[in-house]
Write a structure and sequence with these properties.
The chain is 65% helix and 0% strand. It is an all-alpha fold. The termini are close together.
Length: 130
């Protein structure tokens, strides 16, 4: 599966309601980790809707950060998290769920499916995909 197929698969999983944003990204990047699909789904289960209230970081970005931490065995995770956040922000316009969805302004920056797609692309840009 090439990068665009991987990113589109994540968006499709989200759009079909099969996963929350975090789970969709983790599923698309599952081959980057040593965890099972079931373990990844459980790990990402609490990161929907900006951790339940739209106040926190987008779950799609959280999924990319979790995948990076697993891929790198935690080595340099903070440095890569910053780079992932910066790349994601440049693609989506924000990193907080409420800003991405335009909760307070009525003007969304990025729909969930695009956030999920962009999180996979950010991971590929910063971490690389083997």
């Amino acid at each position: 599966m090439d990068l665009n197929e991987r990113a589109n698969r994540a968006a499709e999983l989200k759009q079909l309601g099969m996963c929350n944003c975090c789970q969709a990204v983790l599923t698309a990047l599952s081959d980057q980790t040593d965890l099972t699909q079931s373990q990844l789904m459980a790990a990402g289960s609490g990161f929907a809707v900006g951790m339940g209230n739209m106040e926190a970081t987008c779950g799609a970005l959280v999924g990319a950060v979790i995948a990076a931490g697993l891929k790198l065995s935690g080595q340099g995770a903070v440095r890569y998290t910053r780079r992932l956040s910066d790349d994601f922000r440049s693609r989506c316009g924000a990193t907080l769920c409420k800003e991405l969805k335009g909760r307070d302004t009525g003007v969304p920056f990025c729909p969930c499916e695009d956030c999920v797609r962009n999180a996979v692309l950010s991971y590929a840009s910063v971490i690389g995909i083997e």
